[in-house]
Amino acid sequence: MSATPVPAARPALRVPHGGWRVIAAKELGDHLLSLRFIVLLVVLGLAASIPLYFTADFIKTQAPAASGTPAVFLALFTIGSPDYTFLRVDSFVTIVAPLLGLAFAFDAINGERSEGTLPRLLAQPIYRDDVINGKFVAGLAVIAVALLAVVGIISGFGILRLGIVPASDEIVRLIGWIVVTFIYVGLWLAFGLLLSVLVRRAATSALIGFGVWFVLTIFGGLIVTIIAKAVSPLTGTTTDQIIGQAQTQQFITRLLPGQLYAEVTKVLLNPSSNPQADLPGSLGQAQQAAQQIPSTILTFDQSLLLVMPQVVVLVALTVVCFALAYVAFMRQEVRA
Amino acid sequence: MSGVEAAPHEATAPSERPAERDRPEPVIRTRRLTKRYDSLTAVDRLDLEVYPGEIFGLLGQNGAGKTTTILMLLGLSEPTEGEASVMGLDPAWEPREVKRRVGYLPDAVGFYEGMTGRENLRYTARLNGLDRMEATRSIDQVLEQVGLTSRADDPVSAYSRGMRQRLGIADALVKSPDLLILDEPTTSIDPIGVVEILDLLRRLVDETGLAIMLSSHLLSQVQTVCDRIGIFAAGRLIGVGTIDELARTFGDGSATIEVGLDLPTQAVVDRAAVTLRAIASVESVEPAGVGNGSWRVRVRPADREDQVLQDILEAAVRERLRLTAIRPIVPSLDDIYRVAVERPLPKPKGVKRRGSKRPDGERRASANRSSGTNGPRGTDRPAALAPESRPDSPAETDEGQP
Question: Which of A140, A156, A185, B78 has the CA that lies 20 to 30 A from A101?
């Protein structure tokens, strides 16, 4: 039995702080070099540029006639060509963007688990939440990169095809739209993270994530109608009753992130849009909208004011998803 | 330091050891450490001490509570009751400080497959707060130590299991720890890989004076490399000490010496039997017959073994018996383990080791007992014995694996 002397007293070891930064940097590097990033960038790019191709021609032919129309540049994002009205950049982004969020999070934690790297990672001198925070930040960063790249491509393409340079108000609106899109994708990122904590197999969590995305995207409206009818059945034919049911339906619709995002997009990218006119919340609002001076143009801050509730709900949903993932991860046993 | 020579001095329980006061502070100390999951008690009132410069083996079947204990020592799992102290720190309260000083190789360690071995290590170094220069130096050093320098820039996906395991040890060493905790370091490694890893561990302890605690369910490996062993069963530590101490605690108080004799005629055989039986403390002799055979001499009490060994040598010279081999046989850890597990608890149904086919393991002068090859031990491994003494260590190492 040896009593080897203890190694000479070493200078007090510094316990590092900011482990999440190291993790985020590593994850970001992984993401940017990963095949899925390239694939998604291509998909998102196609989703944006195909409608753009048709729209740009349309706008170009109409532009001389429509001189004086506000925010011609933003029309690139919001209108389709007469032949394919559904081909619009904003609706395509609404559909495709969640995939971006899911793709960078669905295997964040369970991937480490199945690779056997999680115990090794947690045995390093970091806080446990550094892992999930770092991964979330890395996901947000990679989303930001992808979004900026895509919007940059669209804008560049638009400037070339149209020969129109965006006005400063349009640029502000575009930035606002990017920020909200970022939050929207962040919501799906947090949802993916939650799945990766709760579901042990990456393939299963991907399937669940894409399943939820598919159902909400394709059947979202149908489901809302069914629930609204069940919650407040249409009992009479008076205006109040009809509006009452419409309100219920609208309330439920606004729980769907895609719907919230679509509303925000519509207002932010179109200075003359007014959701109260399009979707009256009450009889009073409907009357108000009817008396509104047509084609009123809102400033950016007025538009922002209109969609603030939706933005707040989007942020809240993101925070809730992330908080759930966080708590679940902190309470999990290290051992699988 | 050989467990054999030192044995008489260490016969007492650890707490009564004369050397106790000279000992450095333990790197691991647990007091009534307990972990309960709903109805299951994974670790039951564990009292354990591990000292600097030793390799401590945690031996137990799968599910005996080894990994749970390790996780509690690292602050990755909270004890239900009791306390642990690692490097003088409480892992439940200061897990980061503990983890900064302790290298950990998890059971079934994994790496980021797309990254090279060096990149994986660099990530760990960064997480430990090493700056670029320190990290580079430390990584080069540990890669050298585990012998992976030439493959360090290959992606981990191209590594064999043995290389991954060595990379795992390198990963645990990158932070220059004072204590290394290895969970099943040799599981599913081929026999040669196992020998390499165990040699590496011994070298590390000898060179740097760090402490190693390793868990295993493979008895022979623990026996080869560990200075002290704790036997775990159903969450309880049922025995701690060197192999000799454990043998004494759980053995029947006798020792066996194997004597190889080459005897030409029956008359000489009879004479040899009489001679051997006449030696003091020899309880019984199992003769082998004419020709070159191995005799078994049973000694009681066990601590007279060294004297008897000497007497046999002298008697053989005196009686002109052709001695071809002589070596003491320690009870293998297999036997100790089986006895230990069966004694205080109902017979576990899980003991299904092939090792039971080989009731006696001979005492090996392994690298860890380097000082043991002097003195009477010098006769331990004559050339003639080498072939038959070799197979047992690798053959058993991969047992228990699917």
Answer: A156
Q: What is the spatial distance between Cα B301 and Cα B256, in angstroms, rounded to a whole number?
A: 10
Nearest residue to A257 (alpha-carbon basis) of A316, A334, A335: A316
CA-closest candidate to residue B219, choices B200, B247, B260? B247
- Which chain B residue's Cα is nearest to A21? B127
Q: How far is Cα A307 from Cα A299, in angstroms, rounded to an integer?
A: 13
Q: Nearest-CA neighbor of B183 among B256, B107, B295?
A: B107
For chain A, say whether B322 makes contact (Cβ under 8 Å).
no
Q: Is B233 helix (H, G, I), strand (E, B) or coil?
A: strand
CA dist., res. A315 & res. A205, Å (int): 23
Q: Is the CB of residue B362 less than 8 Å from the CB of residue B327? A: yes
Question: Which residues does A34 contact at the CB level (< 8 Å), separation at least 6?
Answer: none
CA distance B46 to chain A (A): 20
B6 contacts chain A (CB < 8 A): yes
- Helix boundaries (H) for chain A: 19-33, 35-62, 72-78, 89-103, 108-115, 118-122, 128-162, 168-198, 202-231, 239-253, 257-269, 275-278, 283-291, 300-331
Q: What is the pLDDT of residues B177-215, one digit of tens each?
A: 999 999 988 877 888 888 888 998 999 899 888 999 999
Sequence-distant (6+) residues with CB within 8 A of B49 are B14, B26, B28, B29, B30
Residue with tokens 């909208």: A289
The pLDDT score that the predictor gives to residue A118 is 93
Structure tokens at B174: 């990158």
Q: What are B24's two structure tokens?
A: 């450095």
Q: Where are the beta strands (DSSP E) in A254-329?
A: none
Q: At what angle do helices A239-253 and A283-291 cross, to 10 degrees?
A: 90
CB B208 within 8 A of CB B36: no
Residue B396 pLDDT > 70: no
Question: Any CB–CB contact under 8 A between B52 and chain A?
Answer: yes
Q: CB of A74 within 8 A of CB of A164?
A: no
Residue from B62, B96, B178, B183 whose CB has the most chain A CBs within 10 Å, to mutate: B96
Contact yes or no for B204/B48 (Cβ under 8 A): no
Q: Evaluate the omega torsion of the peptide bond into residue B155 and state whether it is cis, within 30 degrees of 0.
A: no
B402: Cβ contacts below 8 Å, ≥ 6 apart: none
- Write the pLDDT tens digit of every residue in A94-148: 888 888 899 999 999 999 999 989 999 999 999 999 999 999 999 999 999 988 9
Give me the residue from A1, A116, A120 closest to B242, CB to CB: A1
Tell me how far apart the 2 most distant CA atoms of chain A are, in Å: 96
Report d(CA B85, CA B89) in Å as an integer: 5
Interface mutation target, options B54, B77, B111, B123, chain A, most CBs of A under 10 Å: B123
Closest among A195, A201, A194, A196 to A326, alpha carbons compared = A194
Out of B19, B110, B178, the one facing A120 most closely (by C-beta) is B110
- Give CA–CA dist A195/A204, Å, rounded: 9
Q: Which residue has the tokens 């000490």?
A: B241
Each residue of B224-259: pLDDT tens digit? 889 999 988 888 888 888 887 887 777 777 788 888
Tell me the pTM: 0.77
Classify strands B255-263 and B323-331 as parallel, antiparallel or unpaired.
antiparallel
Question: In chain B, which residues have their Cβ closer than 8 Å to the Cβ of A1?
Answer: 1, 6, 10, 19, 54, 227-228, 242
Kindly determine whether residue A14 and residue B129, on different chains, have CB atoms separated by under 8 Å: yes
Only one residue has tokens 């009534």, namely: B32
Q: Rounded to 5, what percent of chain B is helix, strand, coil?
A: 45, 25, 30
pLDDT at A277: 52
Place of tokens 């090996």: B364
Q: Do the chains contact at B209 and A121, CB–CB below 8 Å?
A: no
Q: CA A6 → CA A225, B88, B138, distances in Å?
A: 73, 13, 20
How many CB atoms are located within 10 Å of the residue B109 CB?
23
